[in-house]
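User: I need a structural model of Pyruvate kinase from Phaseolus coccineus for a docking pre-check later this week. Nothing fancy, just the predicted structure tokens so I can convert them on my end. Input:
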Amino acid sequence: MVLKSMVASASDLSLVSAAGNVPLDFKNRVFGGRVISLGFRFNRGRWKGNERFNFKVRAAVDVGVEGSKSKALQGTSGFDVVSEGDITVKGFAGLRKTKLVCTVGPACNSLEELENLALGGMSVARLNMCHGTREWHRDVIKKIKKLNEEKGFCVSVMIDTEGSQIHVVDHGASSSVKVEEGSIWHFTAEHFEGSRPFTVQTNYTGFSEDIEVGDELVIDGGMACFEVIEKTGNDLHCKCIDAGIFLPGAKFSFWRDGKLVRRNYKLPTLSTKDWADIDLGIAEGVDFFALSFVNHADSVKDLKNYLSTKSTKSIKVLAKIESLESLHKLEEIVRASDGIMVARGDLGVEIPLEQIPTVQEDIIYVCRQLNKPVIVASQLLESMVEYPTPTRAEVADVSEAVRQYADALMLSGESAIGSYGRKALAVLDMTSSRMESWNREENRQKLLNHHQLGAALPECITEQICNCAVEMANNLGVDAIFVYTKHGHMASLLSRNRPNPPIFAFTDDESTRMALNLRWGVVPLLVDLSDDAESNISKSVQLMESKGLISQGDVVLVVSDIAPKRSSPMALQSIQVKTIG
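Assistant: Understood. Predicted structure tokens for Pyruvate kinase:
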């Protein structure tokens, strides 16, 4: 094996300035068309052409930055079975970059079905704590970990908290129920076992406070619609005026004269049940928590502080954007979080439907500017809960999220309770791959403009090295990018630029590997890293060669922040282009 390296000096990187962290400007950017009702704007154009560095890079840049030594990991094998198989069949260029998240429910909680989803491309398994017992969820987590350990998968686990949900109703059946126009339904806070005909349980006794006869009750943003015809105590008798489907654990909202009836219950973001669910996740070693109904950054910070004292591993906290309040405080929520989920179902209840596409695009944009992964969720392939093929409009919706460079797409009911979960996952896989190919053909990543993240000089250097690396990789047409990273930061900066080649992130930290499962275009590998950069490169190339994944003539671009020598207190941040010979 011969590695041919093209190297240039540190003078090839010219730093002009290193400005501090400037807040994003929301004043001149409108979320949708109804400006007055939302009052939420920011200026995307502010960052276009706003370069903080002028730089030239030939091939390699060595910059000394103080850093800590990396601890070695013993005896790890690196690749997960799905990535290895995809590279073997499709090659580097054929790898899908958009990550896929599946909600686990009664339709797919068996070991066999979970394995099928993993083989189909599921990177993250989501557990919705609105449904099922803690024992049920614990069993699912153990099954996923068993598949990872025994079958060689790399599937992360996400717990999605229920939150202080006062807007949830359940008809008691295990699957969807069709609602006929003109039928009369009883909505009650009374709790009972099983189901009763035309009776729906709510999970909050005060659900009907301030509601009047004549108000409209909308299920899941329009899946079915009722008119309140009688109010008895806290119970409501409602007549269906728009027929549709009633899913288990459905969300509801009240409307009066065409406007959402807003009520402030002053409930905490995390309920007592949520804290118990979080403790379950900590005990079982999950990788992500998705926090429901986040309206301000403090709730995210509180959970992260709690995890830092209770968990020995790094667990990432995602905030779900699903309310008007969360849009008003979007930037501070994104900055405080480790990632964002665009919960379009609940969000569509709070803002006009026609604003959802632009709001989605703007949330994705803000997340990319602040280098946080973003998941587009809710109703991507809703028809596939009941039918084996999606509508063409749904495929177009998926394609649009991919075109906007969302990090991940999520299946909800399609995989949890649907009869065609595997087919729905295959649709996401094929549609994402095709749209990514179009993005590359159109050279759309050239249109991306990035807000400067770093404030201190070392942070700015790291960021610019990653920006240069992606530009070089695209211009040179390399086959892959290798990055060696302890905490995943450099891998995330590379991903932020949406490069054409896949990013192989070599790390010796299990938490980092599982967290990178949500990063666009990143294939995380758990390997034994040393303080010798050249040794790491040689070992990773040998690993790829041993599995037949890389061959003579392939070109890889290598980015590293691992210290070059054990005796050196300085870390080497470098870009190298290597040809396999």
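Before docking, keep this in mind: The CA atoms of residues 170 and 249 lie 5 Å apart.
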